[in-house]
Amino acid sequence: HTRYISVTGVQTCALPILTGNFTNSRLWLSKSLGKSEVETGVSHGFGKADMGDNIKLTSFDFTIRQFPSTFKRILIQGELFYNDRQDKSTGTGSHTRSGYYLFGNYKADQFYDYGIRYDNTKLPWPLPGRENSLSLIWTDHLTEVTTLRLQYKTGYRSTDILLPGTRNFNEMWLQFIWGGGSHTHPLQ
């Protein structure tokens, strides 16, 4: 079940697929403070890859929401993660990766919001390198469960192993997001 990534003229590498159980836990705390909400959480998970490698993932996240008036919202959110993988298949030892993101968002009314996001993360082992990027995000909430999102992303990848020629990159993404189910909640 190993997945291989192969790009012409670039090295080929195997990415792990989790097998069996991946045990995880999460501690989440939330507090309402007048027109604000503060949330924080810690998550930890561990399991094995199909090659027998032990994988551990730990993260810390926070969210602050301020509601200045009806339909308006200010959101500040972030997450820091740390990953450790013990390479048993080739015997190269322990490999760690870490990263974080910070996100700020202003919902001006019931339909539109505007955001900015900074990402700084290492690529998953065995891929070398890191990605730093800044995104500007515009969102139109068509309904409670459908969203149209336009995102401009610019940044730097210290490797071109997955996307050749993108060391300095500019990307534009258009997303249509739909959420459904018997207990549907408004999309963020």
Structure description:
The chain has 188 residues and is an all-beta fold. The chain contains no helices and 11 strands. It has strands at residues 3-5, 13-15, 18-33, 36-49, 54-66, 73-87, 93-107, 112-122, 130-141, 146-157, 168-178. The strands form 2 sheets. A 9-stranded antiparallel β-sheet has the order 3-4-5-6-7-8-9-10-11, with no helix packed on it. The protein has a two-stranded antiparallel ribbon with strand order 1-2. Strand 9 (130-141) and strand 10 form a beta hairpin. The radius of gyration is 19 Å and the shape is globular. It starts with a strand and ends in a 10-residue tail after the last strand. The model is unreliable at 1-14 (pLDDT under 50).
Distance between the termini: 34 Å
Derived from helix and strand composition plus strand pairing, the structural class reads mainly beta
Helix content: under 10%
Order of adjacent strands in the largest pleated sheet: 3-4-5-6-7-8-9-10-11
Radius of gyration: 19 Å
Number of helices: 0
Overall 3D shape? globular
Please state the average pLDDT score. 83
Q: How many strands, what sense, and barrel or not for the largest sheet?
A: 9 strands, antiparallel
- Estimate what percentage of residues fall within beta strands: over 45%
Q: Let me know the number of strands.
A: 11
SSE order: EEEEEEEEEEE
Low-confidence stretches: 1-14
